[in-house]
Design goal:
82 residues; mainly alpha; 2 helices
Length: 82
Amino acid sequence: MGIGTSIFLIAVGAILTFALDASIGGVNLDVVGWILMAAGVLGLIMTTLVWGRRREVVAPVTPAEPVEYRRVEERRDVAPPL
């Protein structure tokens, strides 16, 4: 879950909990809103933890010797493109 999705869930949950005063048969919108907000906060925390680990600086690994050598030759008999 990304940051955008988490914020969207928090916003929809807040709207269902605090802004609406409607009832649907057998469904409590306040509870649904709280669940959505909790899922959004949990997703935001998890995304932050995952992205925080990805941004750690790691020293690059360079080989001691090149893997292979290639010889490059320039051709002078071909005219350059116009």
